[in-house]
Amino acid sequence: MKSLFKVTLLATTMAVTLSAPAFAAPAAAAKDAAPASNAAFKNDDQKSAYALGASLGRYMENSLKEQEKLGIKLDKAQLIAGVQDAFADKSKLSDQEIEQTLQAFEARVKTSAQAKMEKDAKENADKGKAFRDTFAKEKGVKTSSTGLLYKVDKEGTGDAPKDSDTVVVNYKGTLIDGKEFDNSYTRGEPLSFRLDGVIPGWTEGLKNIKKGGKIKMVIPPELAYGKTGVPGIPANSTLVFDVELLDIKPAPKADAKPDVAAEAEAAKSK
Asked: pTM for the whole thing?
């Protein structure tokens, strides 16, 4: 499951720099390129050298694309020239100039990344509110005092779960644009968890149905992952969940007393 459980996140600043790659470039990521024939290389050393160069080139290409997302457009020709000049030991910059330039570049990337994150977070908050306002008008939708919106499609039977209960569910989670970030149905495996061990929106929402029940929940960011977000779920995201409550397992009673009569009977049979 993708980060449904409560997590503590360190505040981090996204920085995409040439000295710190954010990803590996596996061979499977090549763009529909036909595999090179071994006949193109005289030996394994040549093939390995080419592979290293191809990996470096792919990384640099993707790095340039990442910078463009932040509004920074680096000159590809100068990037390639820098690599070639370094191999030829003819760099136009001294080691000190290189270090200073890269430090300034990293600072610029961090500033641009922070600005983009703040812009995206605000847009997510605004779009999320508009989505919730529209959903709230649908027939059967209820809004709680915390801002949780939900629609019970099937109530279920028995008792509603309590915070200390373990529940078993199937669910699908999407962003407001319909992009799916998690789905237990496609995994073919329901999820089991203690009700008070998940995001507040789930803890509150599932108490509105019983075993066998189905519910649609639209959860505002303050009841989900807030201003930080998690991988796959951007900051200030409103989340949409369709949940089916398969089972409820009450927590063992900590103060339960032993059955004295049963123990005595068991002792007699020994």
From this structure: 0.67
